[in-house]
Every structure is written in structure tokens, then in C-alpha cells.
Sequence to fold (508 residues):
Amino acid sequence: MSGKTIVIVDYGMGNLFNLQRAIASLGFESTITFDSKRIETAGRLLLPGVGAFPKAMEELNKRLLLEPLGQFRSTGRPLLGICLGMQLLFSKSYEFGEHKGLDFIKGKVIPLRRPEPDGNKYKIPQIGWNRIEIPSSRTVGPASKRGLLTGLTTGADYYFVHSFFCCPEDPAVIAAETEYGRDRFCSVAHQENLWGCQFHPERSGELGLAFLKNFINL
Amino acid sequence: MRRALRVIPRLDIKGPNLVKGVHLEGLRVLGKPWSFARAYYRGGADELIYIDAVASLYGRNSLLEIVRKTAENIFIPLTVGGGVRSVHDMRDLLCAGADKIAINTGAVNNPDLITQGAALFGSQCVVGSIQAKLINGKYFVFTDNGREATEREVVPWALRLVELGAGEILVTSIDREGTAAGYDLDLIAELADVLTVPLIVGGGCGRIDHMLEAAKNAGVDAVCASSLFHYQFLKSAQEDESFAEEGNVEFLKSHRGEREFMTSRLLPADIKQVKFSLKANGVSCRETAG
Fold:
């Protein structure tokens, strides 16, 4: 059982209860904690978060969580970063200056481009439903490659709230893409045991729950 | 570019009940909010808005239990408002399961509340709620569920709310609210032209056509409706005995005036019908399958 202990990292960035409730609705218990031991020994680790990147890194630092997160990563057990949590997995972000991230995935986090003065109007941050496009290489083939996208089809919508997005150096990391305004960005990232999603699976209806279930079942 | 219009049922809450009024007054009980909320979630609602209809008046907040119960089995964004006066109120609602907090009276009385809320929980959590009424050709901000006039005009106040830290603006036309006469398109146009954050429009939606009219303005990000959905749910509850306890069916049978209202202006529809019509008319909506 301990192999499937689900831990939600609490570092003071945003409301974690709805994520816990979503997991509960799938029939699984989860623990919200910043205890390093419990994080290192988790079976599944969720790194959620909303807010600003530099503040989030500062909070992780304050709670001495950088090392436990690194420890967990090296166990090879699955880790899912959600929204800001996904962005933290990357090397650096340009939100309020240049800031170092966890650097688990090579790449940077940059802002969505604003609309052109006489172009199509759209709003920043993106708040609302948007589709994820999954390359066919991710929907067929071995289960290990499909992972969290198992059973999900390209073109369905998920709930996004963000103004920055992740640019992985290695395009193979991109498991799904989303278009917003003038940008096309990585909305699901996958590298070894690391997963990240820019949308909120806990607020994305039944498809979001399916995504979370896939993570638990990895 | 594709832009999925959000379709949002609004549930006005009084005590433990879902209520509906006209011009935000004359509230009557329709049933238990979570029965409606669950049906909307299953039907494909993109978000839900709960507004405590009396909290502003009596200074109490009975929403927490309803929010908690909703959050257990509904996994779309939930915006909650009504009587929010402090960051404590906000925190309580967020912990109970709300994703965003709508603030109207609290912001007019204390604009700093918006800034504090945004600093603590993020702008994405703070919805600036505006109740608007047309007086001598100008839209004015009202508080306390449309009861109290202010000297603030809607557009500058909306811009101020954004400046203070509101991540979205929810505007409700008091003139249209509960009338099923359609959204106030002039009001919407004034706001859509200037806002840089998402705009949610409400008040007056009585049929799918009204949503189509509002959606024509590219500055509208979300449409909100209550009677449209609630009466459809009650109708289906009336036809389905197993649902009978979930909605106030007796009220439908006994209120003659209400039936006339429904046949004259209101054409109830469920979320699926709404989305089907929107898409058929070229308005993008959330897809739940590829």
C-alpha cells in the first residue's frame, strides 16, 4: 500500500483541498504536507500551486523542500506538477525577472504574448477552457509512453488559469500542446517519471479526473 | 483564434435553498442547490456561480456548508459570493471548496479588500462583481443585491476593480435580472470594449438566443444564466418522479403567474441544448471529447 501513498506538497501556494477532493472522488486518500520524510517516501507526489514563480521557489526553499523533491525525483516514482507546479520543474522562469527553478526538466518558463494592437483580441491571463492536442505518437504505442494521456483523445478541453508557460529544450518532452492567442505551448510535459500539466485536472470535469486517475494508476 | 465561451449557471442561495427572484428581489424557493448543481455539472456546465442572496443584508454567511457539499463531487470551477467582507471570509470559502470569490458590496465599502485578497490568494481568485442599473442613460453601481445605489459609474468602477487586483469581472444587470428579456447588450458593450480581464455577463437570459446575442461581442468570455437552467431542471424533475424531491415541483404546479411567465418569455433549456445551439451557430464551447 505504501507504494501508492499519494502526497500533495503543501508550500503555501494556493488551495490544495479541491485537488485532495478530486483524488478522494476517485477512491484514494491523499496527504497534504510539507514534511520532507513523507515527501521522500511518497508513492505518488503532486506538486500543485497557483501564484508567482519566484514566491513559490522562495516558499519551497523556506520549507527546506528542494532536497526532498530532488530525492523523490531520483526514486523514479511518479511526480505530477500542476499549473505553477509544472513550471517549477523547469530550469528557470522569467516571471518578475529571471529565477531558477527546480531544473528537473531543461527549459524555461516565459509569458504568453499579448495581443497585437490591431490583431485578434484575447485576454491575459488565459482563464477558461482550452483544448490539448496530443501527438499521435502519444496516443498509440506502449502504455509507458501514453501514461497520463491514456484513454484521452486530442481536441478535448481542460481548464486553464495562467499567464506563463513552459518551453522544454527537448521537444520530446512535449506530451500535449495548446494554442492560445499568438502562442502554441506545452500543456502536458513528460520526462521519465516527471509529468506536468499547465491546466487544472481537478477543475477540468470528468476528463480531468481521468487524467488524475491515470497518474495514480501509473 | 478559437475561444471557448464559458456557460455558467448562477445559483442564488438563501439559507439552505436555491432561490430565484425578479430584479434580485421577491425571492422564491426552487429547491436544494446541490441537486441543481450536480445536474449542471453532469450536463456539461463550465463553471458554477453561487451567490448568497441575503448575506449582504444580514451580515451572515451560511454558504460554507453548501459550498463544502458541492465541492465533494463537482470538479469544475466554483465562484462564490454574497456578503464577503474580509479576507477571513474569503479564506473560509476557499477552504470550503470555492475557487474564486465574487465581491461586490465588500469592494465598494472597502476597495482594499480586493487588493488584499489578490495579494493573499492571487488575482485569479478574485472576481469583481458589479450590479448595474441604468439611470438617466448612465449605468450605476448598486450594492446589497441591488438595493443600495452608489454614485459610482460602472465602467470606471470596473477598471478600478481590475487595477485593484480583480482577475475577472462579473456584471449583472439589475434591470434585466429575472425578466428573461435578454442581456443588456449596451452595458456589455461598454465593458467589453475596455476590459483586459475576462468578462462574465449575467442578468436577463431567458432563452438560448440571448446567449447568442451576447456571444457576438468578442469581449464576452462567459455567459451566466439562472432561470433558463433552473426551470428546465424543475421541468425535468416534474416529469421524472425520482427527481421529485430534488426540486420544488409543487410550486410549478401551483403558480399560475409563473407558468405564464415561462410561456411568454422564458424558454428553459439545459446545458446540452445550450451548447448544441451555440456550436450550431458558430460559437465555440468546451469540448468534452476529442
